[in-house]
Amino acid sequence: MATAQSSQAIGRIFKARSVAVVGASGNPSKFGYMTLDSIIRGGYEGQIYPVNPKGGELFGLKVYRSIKDVPEPPDLVIIIVPARFIPAVMREAAEKGTRGAVILSAGFREAGRPDLEEEISIISKQTALRFVGPNVQGINYLPNKLCAMFFPVITKRGPLSVITQSGSATAALSEWAADEGLGICAAINLGNQTDLCESDYLEFLAADADTKSMALYIEGLKDGPRFLEVIGKTGPRKPIVILKGGKTQAGQQAASSHTGSLAGSHAVFEAACHQYGVLTAVNLEHLYDCAKALATMRKPKGNRVLSIATSGGMGTLAADEAEPQGLTLPPLPDAFIDELRSQEITPFANMENPLDMGVITAEDFQKIVMLAEQYDVADIILMNLGDPVPGMPEITQHLLENTDVSIAVSYLGGGEQEKIGRMKMLEMGIPVFRTPDRAMRGIGAMVKWTAYHRRCQGLKRKPIENRREHFNGGEKFVLEPEAVEYLRPYNIRYPEHGMAGSPEEAADIADRLGYPVVMKVVAKDVYHKSDSGGVAVGIQTRHSVINEFSEMISRVRSKRPDASIEGLMVCKEAPPGLEVIVGAIDDSIFGPTIMFGLGGIFTEVYRDVAFRIAPLSRQDAEEMIREIRGYPLLEGTRGKSGYDIQQLIDLILRISQLVTERPDIRELDLNPVRLFKKGLTVLDVRMFVEERV
């Protein structure tokens, strides 16, 4: 359904002013009891209608025998009955005039009943009854005090919204935020996503003024292109952090191209998030820390951090985590140090960044921060508390109101003073972390997102379309001479060459091209020519060409007796240069995906590659080149001049255009591409296409 309709449907569900609980129960062990109890304890202020065929009374509320008996059409029905009864409940609710549902019950495709899931999907489309689930823990939307989940009951309202495919993750993130004093705006358990999906909730929360950042735990996407469209609109203006489960999933089938074998689902997912300004987390704790920072921190101007610590060890832990997070701890200017010494705060201070001040007061922290801003020492101040410091919440609030610098706090080892102080500061909207390294990871997340936010001002991405609808035929390997023709309209350089069916014909082509030449076998069932002895380089004479023709045929047949050899390509040999790989794959989730990396051992062993989802912007291409660990080789090292990076960027963009315009391409390797000081050339093309039905 249309995205605007989905956001409106979520709004109706989350902001419902009357709720019917179908399957309400008086048995405390039943989800029908727990959910009704949660709604009441959550403070819901709308009308509540318990529904159960037995009738009676629950929690002082009249129980209705069916939805038909409810005195008004409820805005929302929460359904907790056995799966086989749910289609009838949905039809009855739709007939009553209800337009939203949350289906908590399990027993659908996850239990071997895809037919039942298809039935409720059809009912939704026929009646316009939109729904969350099925198979969910529920939803909690604090602006409406609607806790429609069987647990936990969270009433602490705050700036963080949580979307997960795990009930346990939903509960953990919500409880951490509530226990610390941060609070949540919304918590959504995704379940089977038969109707509304993660992209719909992201789009709704992006427009929700109470949500300042979003934390997601997901294991798979319902619609990859739709997800990219939503985060492309949302990512630059509202922070999103995602933890993806299944990183080591063994469901990556062997592929015939290097790109296919390297493009594991998680590698492509991480690349897509990076490209669209979404941060990724390594575990649940990291997800929470990043989302907390993004929900509370002031946008920093840069990545310079000053750590002011009451403990040398805590300062060291902060410094150790700075570089991995892309942060710097700049040296302190002499004028700042002299002024700080003149304050006579403590005789025991270590006047380096991180500052180890020893035991100091909250007022001392205020003096140091104000002085640091005066001398423009850093963009972010980390107040690194390793001891109890009374009065820190009030001082920190004062600093936020009277400085422009971004502030974060690490607080541990402070006993009861720490617990009280952390709660107060988070309630004020000040980011507080339990350890210095966690604080630096949170700061790093805010710095990365802010940089992306600034970089993407005015950037418009083309919508990603469904490319696969006309392609359900078999996959075909494209012979290299034909594959080269795919490149020609895009001005992608390939050496002069010819196709030979006999030794004499090969020699004639070599004479015409000029020596030295390269010879390559052309066979539809020989994908990796080198492995089969099907490549020879540095051939200098006509006589050598004639001999090599027969020898190559013999080598290939000895390794691949069943090979159907079409002939041999004879190519003009390119001069020496640096070899890289540029590839593409039609990812099953996101569609056309581009890969870049250095060639040879860097690809085979180190897997030093970068991915982006097509179509690419020039900025995307530049970033993926700089992203690989081998980038210094492209720039030039140890006195050697660099290679033609601008031509490489152009090549990547042309491949992006090619695979975007040619949806039949499933896998493409340009490997190697040889870079020169000026220019480049493709030396080998391996391509698979899918035929139209």
Topology:
Layout: H1 3-14, E1 18-22, H2 31-41, E2 47-51, E3 57-58, E4 61-62, E5 76-79, H3 86-96, E6 100-103, H4 114-127, E7 130-132, E8 138-141, E9 146-149, E10 157-164, H5 167-180, E11 184-189, H6 198-206, E12 213-218, H7 224-234, E13 240-244, H8 258-262, H9 265-275, E14 279-280, H10 284-296, E15 305-309, H11 312-322, H12 334-342, E16 355-356, H13 362-374, E17 380-385, H14 392-402, E18 406-411, H15 415-427, E19 432-433, H16 436-455, E20 475-478, H17 480-487, E21 497-500, H18 503-513, E22 517-523, E23 535-539, H19 542-559, E24 565-572, E25 578-587, E26 591-598, H20 601-604, E27 609-613, H21 618-627, H22 631-635, H23 645-661, E28 665-675, E29 680-682, E30 685-690
Parallel strand pairs: 1-2, 1-5, 5-6, 6-7, 10-11, 10-12, 12-13, 13-14, 15-16, 15-17, 17-18, 18-19
Antiparallel strand pairs: 3-4, 8-9, 8-11, 20-30, 21-24, 22-23, 22-24, 25-26, 25-28, 26-27, 28-29, 28-30
Nutshell version of this structure?
With 693 residues, the protein is an alpha/beta fold. The longest helix is centred in the middle third of the chain and has 20 residues, at 436-455.
Labels describing this entry:
Rossmann fold, 23 helices, 5 domains, seven-stranded mixed β-sheet, alpha/beta, 693 residues, seven-stranded antiparallel β-sheet
The number of E-state strands comes to 30
Distance between the termini: 27 Å
- Count of the domains: 5
Average predicted local confidence, pLDDT: 92
What overall form do the CA principal axes indicate?
A: flat
Given the helix and strand composition, which structural class is it?
alpha/beta
Helix fraction by DSSP (H/I, runs of at least 4): 25-40%
Radius of gyration: 31 Å
For the biggest sheet, the summary is: 7 strands, mixed
Looking across the biggest beta sheet, what order are the strands in?
A: 9-8-11-10-12-13-14
Q: What is the assigned CATH homologous superfamily of the largest domain?
A: Succinyl-CoA synthetase domains
Low-confidence segments, given as residue ranges, are 250-256
**Which fold name corresponds to the CATH topology of the largest domain?**
Rossmann fold
CATH architecture of the largest domain: 3-Layer(aba) Sandwich
Number of helices: 23
